[in-house]
Amino acid sequence: MAFRKSTLIFLVMLALCGVCFGAVYRVGDSNGWTSRGLVDYNEWASTKDFHVNDTLIFAYNNQFHNVMQVTTQDFESCNPNSPIAVYSSGSDTITLDRPGNFYFLCGAPGHCRAGQRVEIMATLPTPDDSSPSASPTEAISASSALSNGLALHFSKLGLGVTMFVLSTLLGFVF
Ligand SMILES: [Cu+2]
Question: How far is the CA of 9 from the centre of ligand 1 (A)?
Answer without folding.
Answer: 45
